[in-house]
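Model: Ready when you are.
Researcher: Fold this.
Model:
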Amino acid sequence: MIRILQIGMSSNPGGVENFIMNIYRNIDRSKVQFDFLVDHNLKNVAYEDEIIALGGHIYREYYRRKELFIEGRKSLKSFFKEHQDIVGVHFHANTINPMFKVVEVAYKQGLPIRIIHSHNTNYMTKMSIKDKAYEILEKRRLDKISTHLLACSYEAGRWMFNNKDFEVIKNGINVKEFKPNVEIRKKIRKQFNINNNIVIGHVGRMNYQKNSLFLIDIFNELHKINSNIVLLYIGDGDLKEKVINKIKENHLEGSVILIGAKDNIKEFYQAMDYFILPSKFEGLPVSLLEAQASGLNCYVSNAVSREANITGLVDFFNSKNTAKEWALKINYDINNKKIINENIIKQKFEDSGYNIISSAKKLEKIYLMEE
């Protein structure tokens, strides 16, 4: 059995975290085990209990360059020398900086598997001139430092790797986990007192990328048309205070339910009737795949790749569409809902390759150096 060091987990069970865990649950763990390197200050890691139960180790031993002189700091070189059972690193990246250094040290230490995996099509936050210069320089060395360049979509690969060769690993999911379940639907809707409401759902961090404030604008316009609609908002982030203020400004306190970050997201899809994702940019959002697997009609920005429309349940909006135009389309569909049989949904996922078994098997072969 080999061990692969996963880099990119945070405390938030978001798209990257869900992708890693979907692979971990479905890979042959008698052949491949995962370990996780995270920031030394990270108190809670998403899915931490499950990671330990599956046989993984979590190492809170990553320090940034500016933390060079912190007492007890361990160098990456020392880390790899102490853990010689780790034969590869898999860096899940929204940008090359800052944890690319781990891949670089793995290269110098002679680890045979060094993967850089692009999960986005733009920067999550504005980069400093210094960090941008660092990234430009490091991108020139990707072919030398890494053994595999992977991406969640064609757009994500082109954005991060430019003209370098890369392979797309589809963000596969376990479709069976999202099969409609009447009992779970009743349980969640009763818990939040939304038994008779039409429920619009959103899963995503409260940040610039997910366009969180515009999401509230859309819902506000929708609520003006139909006051029986509620928004089930699953996620947390740096825009939370602004989101709450916008909810209050529009007097939507009783109609927007803020759930926060959750591990059991699949249960919340059961309570939804529709799904909305007005992102400013995306790689290929796992949440959209999960929503489709749950049979939901989905409304997304055209920042999302068309290849994410597995089932035909997805409607796209361009950047010029106003919040009112989003609302009018969604409201129209409430009376003209598209419905697809769950067996057809399952088959569409299998045909498209967005099945977790296919994705896990591809990565397993890469880890075992069989391709």
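Researcher: Now this one.
Model:
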Amino acid sequence: MKRMSAAAFGLATLMLAGQAMAYVTVRYYNKDSKAHVAEAVCSGSKKEVKFGSSRTASVTIQGSGPCTVTLGNTVELKGGENIEIKDGKITIK
């Protein structure tokens, strides 16, 4: 009985750890001279995503993909995409 409980606990721990480490990472180029904050929804949870001004960088959004990101328009991100921000709108390149 104890072995079964330990096995069930171990399985539950692995499942939770897998969810905690879920994320979507994208590379972005912000052509605008101002920083932007977008709303992302991943796994039903809302997050804020910050894109620095006039730069190329990567951003990681916690949660499993696909994620919808809204900044002037809405795009769906699965991870690994290159995105561009221009005139306050986000596009996948």
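Researcher: Key takeaway?
Model: The helical segments are 2-20.
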